Amino acid sequence: MTPDSSTLIRSLRRKRSSSEDEYAKPFFKWAGGKSQLLHEFDSRFPEALKTGVLDRYVEPFIGGGAVFFFVMQMFPFRESVICDANEELVLTYQVIRQDVDALISLLRDYQSRYDALDETGRKDLYLSVRAALNADRKGFDFSSYGPSWIERAAKLLFLNKTCFNGLFRVNSSGEFNVPFGKYRNPGIVIEFNLRLVSELLKSTTILHGDFSRCLEYVDNRTFVYLDPPYRPLNNSSSFTSYSRDGFSDQDQVRLKEFVDSVSSIGASVMLSNSDPRNEDPTDHFFDDLYQQYRIERVMAKRVINSNAEKRGAISEIIVMNYSE
Ligand SMILES: C[S@@+](CC[C@H](N)C(=O)[O-])C[C@H]1O[C@@H](n2cnc3c(N)ncnc32)[C@H](O)[C@@H]1O
Q: Is the CB of 87 under 6 A from ligand 1?
């Protein structure tokens, strides 16, 4: 069993003698969430994080933010920048930062409607919220913040908590298409955590778009953590498409060039990815790409796979541009 992020933070903090006992944690279930690998990352973070020499944190593929929430509450960062190509996810982060009270009140409303219904009614509610989310998408202004963002974030969080497997998956036109999840007690509004997250995001720059947007925020006191979409483990695996912007091998090469650029600025970088050698021992894609960097392999559970036989342990690679 690997500890969840708050248990790990609590135990590490106790060791590092801090008195705080409440921690913000991911509010969105997200494919590729890194909670289970935090203990592996923690033992490989650069020493300069603990001393505050690295005082800016940049995470260009934020997803559910497991690593972001962990490091922001473990180390003395002064500034942070997060980014993702998924506009729905970025919208939700923005709303939690700016309008957490209004968001909580809409979620409470969803929670009481859900609680009062039987299973058929819950499924109907889910399908109607999903249809409204998709209908509103056409013409939705993702570029300027407004009240409609709060309603959209509430729908997204409601669907994320009640959909099958807590997956966020869209089709080629960007429509959310995950079926209903039949949870007895899905915890639609976890008010306390949303407020902690909101506080933490107050000092965070939130960007939407390609990872390359983050380059201008990197200096020689920056720690960059990169968790790009997985390279498919086999031909039938489609888990790189949880964003409409699929991530090709050319993008992996572009990302390696980004790692080179931030390294030449003097930043410290850690990158994680699935290990293609799990499926094909002769596939040295990342070993070749990152040959001038330190590469380590760690074991992870493969959480999301529709094929039960393929749910065992797999190795993940961690690439670092620093030695200690
Ligand atoms: C593996 S997930 C990150 C998971 C995250 N570390 C967590 O713990 O939940 C990869 C993320 O990259 C985003 N993404 C895909 N293409 C991107 C791009 N070109 N630039 C920035 N983000 C991108 C996806 O929307 C997804 O949220």
A: no
For the Cβ of 166 lying below 6 angstroms from any atom of ligand 1, the answer is: no
Q: What is the pTM of this model?
A: 0.89
Residue 198 covered by a domain: no
Report whether residue 34 contacts ligand 1, using a CB cutoff of 6 Å: yes
Q: Which domain holds residue 182?
A: 91-165+175-190
Q: Of 68, 105, 71, 70, nearest to 89 (Cα)?
A: 68
Q: Output phi, psi for 92, to 5 deg.
A: -65, -40
Cβ-proximal residues to 59 (8 Å cutoff; 6+ apart), any chain: 65, 67, 68, 80, 81, 82, 83, 224, 225, 226, 227
The pair of three-digit structure tokens given for residue 23, joined into one six-digit string: 């921690």
Closest ligand 1 atom to residue 30 Cα is 9
In percent, how much of the chain has pLDDT > 70? 85
Q: Are 176 and 152 in contact (CB under 8 A)?
A: no
